[in-house]
Amino acid sequence: MRQMWWKVLCVLMLAYTVVGGFLMPVPRLNIVNETIRNLYFHVPMWFAMILLFTGSFIYSIKYLHSGDLVHDIYSAEFTKTGILFSLLGMITGMEWAKFTWGEFWSNDPKQLGTAMSMLIYFAYLVLRNGLKDEEKRAKISAVYNIFAYALMIPLIWVLPRMVDSLHPGNGGNPGFNSYDLDSDMRKVFYPAVIGWFLLGLWMATLKIRVALLQHKDDNSFQFDTEKQ
Amino acid sequence: MRKASILLLLLMLITTLAQAQTSDAAMADGLRANGKIYVVVLVLATIFAGIIAFLVYLDRKIKKLENKK
After folding, report:
1. In this predicted structure, which of A16-20, A50-54, A67-71, A159-163 has the lowest mean pLDDT?
2. pLDDT above 90 coverage of chain A, percent
3. Dist. CA A82–CA A77, nearest whole Å
């Protein structure tokens, strides 16, 4: 977690993504025009969000297994970082939609499914803030987090693909292959995904480290009062 | 004479404005110019703003932790 190499890799990948994302050749398509380059920025936001929520899901299970509050901290901070990425993904998506689909919000099935999933995760934050007792908060939010993750999969991956959608790769077509993701775009897209993945992980680990320090600080205070 | 020239000027202004409005039908507003590349700029700027907001949030959290010690 505190090693340096993957952070260097992250910066290199993202630098390549920004420069290559603007300058490398892309397919010439009507309506989307140059905005097809948003594939390197908007789409990896969601990938990073899914990665972070998956990490959170794993640590929730670990917490329920071990009862260790450190696992709860990991899970909570992964989720919070994931929510930041979901917000960025949603805003960038709406900006993109305004200039290609014509509206910020066009009730696209994928937009609706994602919005529902985001609201479920916002409720997780409210739930955590509402409970004062540490153990109870950890246990209830771990169970809720597993439920939220289990709902996210059909809401984002399954349901939008079963109906017609403005999003590419939906309405029966799996993945990006249908969207002219040619070899030129792959050269930027895959490093972009890795770069944003690592950035999400980096941000989450920073938050985890702060939260762990805070946790240690709170507990040392408890020990001090017990001694007196 | 002066009145007439002002009127003429006003009339010309109106007609040019009207012409500008009709030729504007293609709605070539800023973000749609140059193959919509500025939409990509906007998207990247949004992500940048998000990362900066995260940094400010983290900064405040760490400061709180430092002040407690």
Report:
1. A159-163
2. 66
3. 8
Q: What is the ipTM of this complex?
A: 0.84
The two tokens of residue A56 are: 């959170």
B52, two tokens: 């900066």
Query: pTM for the full model?
Result: 0.83
Please write the tens of the pLDDT for every residue from A65-104: 999 999 999 999 999 999 999 999 999 999 999 988 888 9
pLDDT tens digit sequence for A129-187 = 999 999 999 999 999 999 999 999 999 988 887 887 778 766 555 455 545 567 788 88
Three-state secondary structure readout of chain B: CHHHHHHHHHHHHHHHHHHHHHHHHHCCCHHHHHHHHHHHHHHHHHHHHHHHHHHHHHHHHHHHHHHHC
Q: How many CB atoms lie within 10 A of CB A91?
A: 19
Whether residue B65 and residue A84 make contact (CB cut-off 8 A), yes or no, is no
| Spatial separation of the C-alpha atoms in residues A200 and A86, rounded to whole Å | 11
Residues of B in contact with A45 (CB under 8 A): 47
CA-nearest residue to B38 within chain A is A35
What is the DSSP-derived secondary structure letter of residue A169? T
Do A41 and B34 lie within an 8 Å CB cutoff?
no
Identify the residue among A36, A87, A88 best suited for mutation to test binding to B, counting B beta carbons within 10 A and taking the highest: A88
Q: At a CB cut-off of 8 Å and minimum separation 6, what does A137 contact? A: A72, A128, A131
